[in-house]
């Protein structure tokens, strides 16, 4: 199992990125409240597909916790029972977490798939933690960090529940996204420290500060991007889905900061690429960084100048998450080099 640890870590990382992508699709389609309860969906492990399944029906068996919609509000079954010909309110209690009670099958299943991927990612990290005990004798830090990753996934699930209970409060959405990136960083660190073929990288102390700043700027950009996205969601509610030309009318300051920071991100990473190639530092991940930034800029320009073409929003967010992950791995490589001996002069 110890030899398979790194492969399991990579699978876990892919699944976490799939969850991020699914979350972006949820945001794009406005499906965040597709399942108004948690961890079930309208009280079901497999959600309903038709509105009739959420309407009270006579002569039907209900399980404790199942949900129906009555007078535009959610009602939860207090116990297992079978209905008669008349509705009995004393067998139901109101859902108290929030007052949202709209069923849209598309939104429900998009959100359900998002949660399903999250559960698979959580299971993968649990398997990773079990496999990590093969490293216990030689590297206890691997096991400890793997267990912390499982706890981080559990905390992320709890954050997801609070997002639903708050009816998609912007601050909680942002924290939820940042926590996903923290988990990405934890998995990348596990992948990095358990690698076998360690190649020597030329020492360069000044580069470490630059790559740290670059990764930090990307994280700030992602946070600002979630705020801009929240503004766009608000505009959609005001002007409608079809008036895309008005979605960025009178944008907040965060939009202008986000756009201006993108120039700084391009210039800084371009300079990093120049330095790494000029000095032959042996850090090929910078090529990935530059390629992702190019795609990120194009997707951002497409949203602004072409009126938010379909799927550009989740692509933009996914590219940002991939950029952060690649930059974080680059930071690890540079930090490792910075601990090595300086090359002799002359």
Largest sheet: 3 strands, antiparallel
Derived structural class: mainly alpha
Instruction: Give the ordered list of helices and strands.
Output: HEEEEEHHHHHHH
How much of the sequence is in beta strands? under 5%
How far apart are the termini? 47 Å
Helix content: 55-70%
Q: Strand tally, please?
A: 5
Radius of gyration from the alpha-carbon trace, in angstroms: 24 Å
Number of helices: 8
Which segments are poorly predicted (pLDDT under 50) over 5 or more consecutive residues? 340-346
Globular, elongated, flat, extended or rod-shaped: what is the shape?
flat
- List the strand order in the largest sheet: 2-3-5
Mean pLDDT across residues: 90
Structural features, described:
The protein is mainly α and 346 residues long. It has helices at residues 5-29, 105-132, 140-165, 170-193, 205-239, 253-278, 285-305, 312-338; strands at residues 61-62, 67-70, 73-77, 81-82, 92-94. The strands form two sheets. A three-stranded antiparallel sheet has the order 2-3-5, with no helix packed on it. The chain has a two-stranded antiparallel sheet with strand order 1-4. Helix 1 runs antiparallel to helix 8 (312-338). The chain is flat, with a radius of gyration of 24 Å. Mean pLDDT is 90; it is low at 340-346.
């Amino acid at each position: 199992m110890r030899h398979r640890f790194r492969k399991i870590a990579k699978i876990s990382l892919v699944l976490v990125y799939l969850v991020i992508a699914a979350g972006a699709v949820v945001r794009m389609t406005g499906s965040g409240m597709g399942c108004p309860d948690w961890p079930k969906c309208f009280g079901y492990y497999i959600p309903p597909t038709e509105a009739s399944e959420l309407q009270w029906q006579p002569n039907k068996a209900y399980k404790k916790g199942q949900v129906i919609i009555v007078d535009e509000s959610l009602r939860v079954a207090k116990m297992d029972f079978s209905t008669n010909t008349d509705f009995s309110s004393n067998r139901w209690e109101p859902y108290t977490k929030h007052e949202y009670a709209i069923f849209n099958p598309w939104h429900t299943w998009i959100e359900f798939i998002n949660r399903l991927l999250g559960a698979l990612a959580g299971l993968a990290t649990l398997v990773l933690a079990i496999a990590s005990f093969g490293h216990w004798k030689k590297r206890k830090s691997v096991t400890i960090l793997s267990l912390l990753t499982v706890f981080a996934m559990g905390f992320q699930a709890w954050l997801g529940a609070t997002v639903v209970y708050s009816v998609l409060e912007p601050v909680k959405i942002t924290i939820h996204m940042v926590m996903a990136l923290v988990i990405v960083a934890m998995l990348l660190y596990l992948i990095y420290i358990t690698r076998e073929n360690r190649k020597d990288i030329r020492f360069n102390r000044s580069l470490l500060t630059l790559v740290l700043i670059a990764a930090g700027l990307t994280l700030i950009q992602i946070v600002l991007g979630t705020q801009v996205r929240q503004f766009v969601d608000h505009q959609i509610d005001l002007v409608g889905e079809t008036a895309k030309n008005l979605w960025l009318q009178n944008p907040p300051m965060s939009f202008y900061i986000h756009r201006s920071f993108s120039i700084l991100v391009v210039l800084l990473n371009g300079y990093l690429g120049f330095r790494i190639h000029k000095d032959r530092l042996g850090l090929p991940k910078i090529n990935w960084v530059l390629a992702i930034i190019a795609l990120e800029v194009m997707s951002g320009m497409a949203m602004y100048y072409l009126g938010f073409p379909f799927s550009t929003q989740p692509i933009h967010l996914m590219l940002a998450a991939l950029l952060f992950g690649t930059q974080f791995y680059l930071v690890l490589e540079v930090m490792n080099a910075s601990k090595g001996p300086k090359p002799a002069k002359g």
